[in-house]
Amino acid sequence: MSQNWTFVCATGELLPGEMKSVFDEVTAVPILVFNYDGDFYALEDRCSHEEFELSSGVFDAGEATIECVLHGARFDIRDGRALCAPAYSPVRKFPVKLEHGGIWTRDDRD
């Protein structure tokens, strides 16, 4: 498990309704960070259906969902759960912390 946090951006650079992708500095896993009404969430930037990057999709800030552009699978950004076919497995959720005026995340898998 990575103990190193990856800097995403300054808190003021990711406004409500926006998302930003980064790579975990240790594991090189792509992570997508969302600002949902001032709360920050992070998911692996990879659809669980076909491993396509979710960052190419549409973040619906009203519904707190991300839709994969490849086949239309939707996921809840707050917990990563799949909301419709063709995805049945959740997307991996990662921790987010706010520190020193920045947003940080990390791949916390063992």
UniProtKB/TrEMBL annotation:
<keyword id="KW-0479">Metal-binding</keyword>
<keyword id="KW-0223">Dioxygenase</keyword>
<dbReference type="InterPro" id="IPR017941">
    <property type="entry name" value="Rieske_2Fe-2S"/>
</dbReference>
<dbReference type="GO" id="GO:0051213">
    <property type="term" value="F:dioxygenase activity"/>
</dbReference>
<keyword id="KW-0560">Oxidoreductase</keyword>
<keyword id="KW-0408">Iron</keyword>
<dbReference type="InterPro" id="IPR036922">
    <property type="entry name" value="Rieske_2Fe-2S_sf"/>
</dbReference>
<dbReference type="GO" id="GO:0046872">
    <property type="term" value="F:metal ion binding"/>
</dbReference>
<feature type="domain" description="Rieske">
    <location>
        <begin position="6"/>
        <end position="105"/>
    </location>
</feature>
<keyword id="KW-0001">2Fe-2S</keyword>
<dbReference type="GO" id="GO:0051537">
    <property type="term" value="F:2 iron, 2 sulfur cluster binding"/>
</dbReference>
<protein>
    <submittedName>
        <fullName>3-phenylpropionate/trans-cinnamate dioxygenase ferredoxin subunit</fullName>
    </submittedName>
</protein>
<dbReference type="Pfam" id="PF00355">
    <property type="entry name" value="Rieske"/>
</dbReference>
<keyword id="KW-0411">Iron-sulfur</keyword>
